Amino acid sequence: MVLNINALGHVLDPRIKLSIRPHIERGPMLHVQGIIVHQTGSPTAQSTLNGYGPRANGAHLLIDKDGTIYQTASLLKQTAHVGRLRARCIARSSCSPTEARAFVNMSPSARNRHEMTKQVPDRYPSNEDSIGIELVGQAFPLSESRSDKQTYEAVTSAQNASLKWLVGALAMQLGVPMTEIFRHPVVSQKNATEAATAAW
Amino acid sequence: MVKCFALSLLAAFSIAAVATPTDPYEGEKYGESRPYSSTVKSVDITRNGLWTDHVSSDETPEHCAGFILRLADVREYFRVSRRASLKEYGHDLDMSRCHAIGRIRFANGDRGEWEIDRARRGSVRLSDGRMLYFYCEACQAKAFYEP
Q: Can you tell me the distance from the alpha carbon of A133 to that of A136, in angstroms, rounded to the nearest whole number?
């Protein structure tokens, strides 16, 4: 399962359609240490691609509901897909007492700065060192202003089949341990149901 | 047979009557903010210090109880915040479990319900069902996290 990745960071594989959106590409990504799995919040792949205009955030790969995989950014470029990192030591119950006390009153920005002084796997993979994979899917009900009442739709079986292949291929090719692959809400403060039904 | 046909027609009519056209700002334009230009006439606060477990964070109910917006903070929010798209609001921006809710009236007569969270995201659901989304980096209220 070797992926053919060219000098531009584009994957040359019949299972992946190149649909590069330069607006979502940021600085160079020197080392990939993790993969983050997202859901778009949009109904279709096209609406997601429409949203990748100037200054937009996005991820490297996009999987439509029928399992079609699009590459939307170079694997050699960072994209702003993660957000501010949560504290990994809290999830592991391994924070020092001093650190745990400090986190109580720390803003997400301050916590992110603190986490970025650490290295993976002591922190979660970040924008600087992770590949993002988006799965097309919305959170319902749409006309609900209360974020605590919106739930992401289930990932389709075709999406999960493509995700499983893609994660396996990327992890092997880039040397990413399977322990460094996360759903988006694990690594930053998001709707807790995002990608909850994704499987790889 | 006639009764069956009539029931089918009634069912079809009922479905058509309750179906609403797809909102482009929840579909192909979900990366764009909905055009809306009216100014805020009045706001009130229904509840402060709310907590939800639907956002992935380590914020506790006790922590969120300290998220208290004053009326002046809410007025400032809707005066200086920028409009956001569904993509930004529901996906790109960091979220907080801590939030406040209230009601809002616009100068054009529209009414709605607002929600603002500690991570500076805001939304208004207008009474006709349209959603407006906001993000306020410039808001000065100390209750917010730093931008």
A: 10
